[in-house]
Amino acid sequence: MTITELDHTDPEGAIAAAVARCSNWGRWGDDDVRGTLNFIDDAKRAQAGTLIRRGASFGLSLEFSMDGPQKGWRRRTNPVHTMLDTGTDAEAGIQGFPHGLGGADDVVAMPLQCSTQWDGLGHIFDHGRAWNGRRAGEVVTSEGDQVTGIETVADLFVSRGVLLDVGRVCGVDGELPDGFAITVEHLDATIADHGVEIGTGDILLVRTGQLARAKRDGWNDYAGGAAPGLSFTTVDWLHLSRIAAIATDTWGFEVRPNEFDIAFQPLHQVAIPNMGLFLGEMWDLDDLAADCARDGVHEFFLTAAPIPVTGAVGSPVNPIAVK
Amino acid sequence: MTITELDHTDPEGAIAAAVARCSNWGRWGDDDVRGTLNFIDDAKRAQAGTLIRRGASFGLSLEFSMDGPQKGWRRRTNPVHTMLDTGTDAEAGIQGFPHGLGGADDVVAMPLQCSTQWDGLGHIFDHGRAWNGRRAGEVVTSEGDQVTGIETVADLFVSRGVLLDVGRVCGVDGELPDGFAITVEHLDATIADHGVEIGTGDILLVRTGQLARAKRDGWNDYAGGAAPGLSFTTVDWLHLSRIAAIATDTWGFEVRPNEFDIAFQPLHQVAIPNMGLFLGEMWDLDDLAADCARDGVHEFFLTAAPIPVTGAVGSPVNPIAVK
Amino acid sequence: MTITELDHTDPEGAIAAAVARCSNWGRWGDDDVRGTLNFIDDAKRAQAGTLIRRGASFGLSLEFSMDGPQKGWRRRTNPVHTMLDTGTDAEAGIQGFPHGLGGADDVVAMPLQCSTQWDGLGHIFDHGRAWNGRRAGEVVTSEGDQVTGIETVADLFVSRGVLLDVGRVCGVDGELPDGFAITVEHLDATIADHGVEIGTGDILLVRTGQLARAKRDGWNDYAGGAAPGLSFTTVDWLHLSRIAAIATDTWGFEVRPNEFDIAFQPLHQVAIPNMGLFLGEMWDLDDLAADCARDGVHEFFLTAAPIPVTGAVGSPVNPIAVK
Amino acid sequence: MTITELDHTDPEGAIAAAVARCSNWGRWGDDDVRGTLNFIDDAKRAQAGTLIRRGASFGLSLEFSMDGPQKGWRRRTNPVHTMLDTGTDAEAGIQGFPHGLGGADDVVAMPLQCSTQWDGLGHIFDHGRAWNGRRAGEVVTSEGDQVTGIETVADLFVSRGVLLDVGRVCGVDGELPDGFAITVEHLDATIADHGVEIGTGDILLVRTGQLARAKRDGWNDYAGGAAPGLSFTTVDWLHLSRIAAIATDTWGFEVRPNEFDIAFQPLHQVAIPNMGLFLGEMWDLDDLAADCARDGVHEFFLTAAPIPVTGAVGSPVNPIAVK
After folding, report:
1. Distance between CA A104 and CA B148 in Å, rounded?
2. Do B89 and C138 touch (CB under 8 A)?
3. Each residue's pLDDT tens digit, D232-282
4. What 3-state class would DSSP assign to D288?
5. How high is the pLDDT of residue A4?
6. Which residue on chain D is closest to B106 by alpha carbon?
């Protein structure tokens, strides 16, 4: 049933075979725009609420800053944040407001996937097809995602979160090296180590440690370069797990270089348009992971509400875990 | 102790007097950047977690769209969302990716306060002074807020939320008219009606119904025009309540036109730089309010995590209430 | 040979007939990206140079400002200009430069056709075909115009300019009313009035007076609303004139509402993809026109060099006429 | 009268002394916003017109592209050009226009000094003072340059241009090495070689050859790194020459590293706020220079009209030389 060996010369064949096993097209009806978020329901959220015990809160977002990792690949830049009004202006008394009021205001221009983000279901296509079998060109035009824009799921990212600190369990000093492919064996070993179970509707957070390395050594090729990440061979595991979403502390979720001779993000091609699985990238899991290592509790209440830019195929998010 | 009558000709005097009574400068130390968020602690968040019962989740954000309310005042435009890659391109087979992969990517340019948002503590100054007594020009320069940028509090907006549906209790058909000043009496009447108590560290959501009107009738002058909102006379109530933050379904939180002959947002001038109180604006409270009216429960778990744009004086947010 | 009467119910037929008469596809080879700019050569430019007599220079660009005419139609906003550094910051001594140096820097975000501009040849398509018969989808993708981007003609807009002040000759107080269709008769009458000849390679500037009205009365619906402009019936005249380009003081070059029952810019559809004719819009011709009225000389040296944004389908320009 | 030796430890003293000799404050009245552009008059432009002989036209602008030299220093990025509508969309038949019309439209976000540009007079300050002695904080606020915005001089850059190909005369294979300080001796040697004279109101173009190197070898540190350029010791020569403006093929006009132990662009500090001299940067002079080397004629008619972004302290420009 699962992949044991990859033919490195045939990504297209491997993708097609995985799609044949793992596709969710039609699973939630023809009009579905929620994909695997359908695995979350009120009962799941209510159960997740019981995981709030100490009341400790963890923000999982990187800053959105000009000093971020982007280097211009596919016109992805770092955010450019500029001021419309400043305190220096206010202090200089030139703003024209009455009774001593002064103000500052600001603007940002940024790619929606420049920092901590969710991939929307319109982000990736498989042979011209988007999620649920729709034509890519009918879904995402120059005016944005007309069907599965991130605004359609903006309030659904609330569930039980589970951290799998693969870096800590399978790596050295908490870090996996670049190019390390996380397999089902690594996931299972981490689950066993943590003593946690994965359930329907969970949002899974996989820490590789690469971001910790980037914080220490500089961004270098963090955006798009070699990285640890999910192996293509985890595709059935991801499908059968019935998780609602998965996020990593890396730029691109899956291992880079990819595991085929000539390929680009093949696991995305199965996960997003065929499974309807939501992928989070560039999440900062380090503080949360340190806490989980301390108290041995790797489950928590998680909200990760994307900014609902109408028609967006990805979206900035500041996820909050509460234990 | 509280304001009974306003001298409409003297906003500067009224502001100074309110500041004398309500300032929190120094209350949490000289280095503080959290203001009233200091009222939230682990115990508060843990207690808030117990409010998750049914598992129903409510997103409180408007869409971030070109069709939003902004009209260019102070260079505040609606978001401009453009695509870097599209499904039409993918379908046309011109993207150059291997194995049938296609992609879409996007960019946004927007004022940080164009839609649902938190005001940061660097947003407003009082006579050249920012929160905690710092010089405005030392805090917010062209490079952004160097001290109280929204990234410094990005993970702190997690607490008990309480909805005060003043529109439903004191208005007609659930809506207060533009120019309606919400006083302490209205707040107290709403609290009594709802049978809810306000406690230290709560995040208060005040619904006026103006947004429901805008959804029905069009934006018109929603951004900056006449609006229902908090009366300047609520300043002591806000101070003594020990709330962590307050948000409304209006553009500007306080009543407009303001309650002085010549004035601009005088309550902001006390609340932000002097009290360190976080203000949320343009929150969409309608679905939540309908649910609260149905089940009579006006308290809930609330996360409202701003996107941590480094140095921002305001930030987009997609708040999530869970009951 | 020319159009005498339009069938107002059949724009598609009228366009097809005009294309049959006026197409320039293949005229300058299969690889051509210059269209009617091919009519300009060194001799033409040298002759244009002799028109510089007094040395008087006229800028023909509107300001690029937040106070411009755009209202958001098709996401066209006015430019948003923000500062990266300011003089207030410099004066406050917080910039960190040595020896007393201070600096200011700035950023702009804008649609390329928000103010005075050239339409590029990739701006308009006819039944999926771009200039010279190429497929629209092969020419202009999400990555911009891959073939006829404005950078390919950036240094070619140098020629003899001729002003036709139709507003002054055929209008009232120098202005044509909105909806006024400028026909061949109006063009000929203006040419006769001015005592000027139109020659191969000229850049024609047609003043309607609408911009003067907008300056006086406010923008109102200048961007996209009713306007005086070229009649569809001028299409053969434009073709036979062998002009290199034509610009107007209106938003959209041709008369609005268009002269068919259901239509949108039909003359564009012939002129740009089929004739390869460059159209300039929102040019400020008023000062130049006043000078021409004074001295009776309606010809001049003209440069109108677009900013060569790579792959752009339109471009800001500050045209300079010298007499 | 001129500088013979620099004290490398005292840039502030050298600047002050140069200002004492070269300041133009008050020279053209208290209200002046034109600085050295005052040296151009109608007679000058008329004389420049006589330099148009062959009719050959040269564009001197780099492309404005994501592949430009900017690397984020002081938030200066390369332009981000995105499409609002595309040919792929048009071809897919989803745009909703009548009679077979399709359209493409686009947007750019860019720093105003990201590519070929003019520095405005509000770009640099000397000890808190802007051009003509005004306070920096009164001139350039968060709302832009209130006094000397580039729109105030948008139609004045029309004059005789003179190319000084210092790279060809004083360099190896037409290129000066990085760090090469161009002195008065080099300027004079180039003038003598070319057999050209510099006159009042000229716009001087100085070619170092660095851009040719960058085109061949890649941008590397072109934006802000080591570069050939004008020596601080040319300050009196620049002043006494009565030129209207000067431009180079480098990022920063003056030699980098600067000629003092600790310094940043000291010649800017004299030239812009004190002399009111307009500086052009990142001009592509290579084709023009090759032509001048061929025919021995180093003078020409030049227009270099900035895009008049209201309040801008710098502006994109596509300069056109005609010989």
Report:
1. 12
2. no
3. 999 999 999 999 999 999 999 999 999 999 999 999 999 999 999 999 999
4. helix
5. 60
6. D82
